[in-house]
Specification:
This protein is an alpha/beta fold. It has ten helices and nine strands. The strands form two sheets. The protein has a five-stranded parallel beta sheet with strand order 3-2-1-9-8, sandwiched between helices. The chain has a four-stranded mixed beta sheet with strand order 4-5-7-6.
Amino acid sequence: MLTAKAITFDVDWAPDFMVEECINTCAKAGIPASFYATHPSPILAEIARASRFELGIHPNFMPLSSHGSTYRDVLKYCLDLVPTATSMRTHSLYQDSRMFAELLATYSQIRVDASLFLPGHRNLHAVDFHLDGKSIRRLPFFWEDDHFAGTPGADWSQPPVTSDGLNIFAFHPVHVFINTRQMTDYSHLKSLAPLASSWTEEVVIGHSNRGAGTRTFLKNLIEQSPKDEFMTLTAMADAS
């Protein structure tokens, strides 16, 4: 069984300065990471050019999605953003068999999915999901920043104990940038400026958590792990 770590970022319409923070943190450490795109931005090209990074898609299948109103429309929109994508994580972890049937029938270039969240589970491994004679490799992940922010007694100063198998971490650029400790940090920012497109670096910095939080956790995770333990999700799927 493969034992490895992966750092992933669900962009979630965050402004470029927030995404840039995540890019710089990983690039400075010389480790790979996977970014999941939600919207057009010049920063996507920057991610795609970096050999250590993977750029995938983060399709929103929820009602009133700006990505489209049908499974096919949503997937087409996202793959127009990232034509070379081979992996995805769905927004809000939405999934059903009809979505996977459409994905496998029409957009088989997406061969890796990371939309299975199993908080705190150990010894995780890849699973091939078969449907209508086709399959996609699914990688479950065990840690997510917004979930951890709502966990009683969460200690942001230390990374969680990992285990043999897949140790996949899901971050969001907004939580990294404002160093979220509790979800009230994020809700306060949203109350000031509900739309991510209206967030400016000057305003957001003034409302960042100054104690231990998501950014602290990310940096500790990187600093306390050997570089060769990290992989992109597609590389992890291929090695599993």
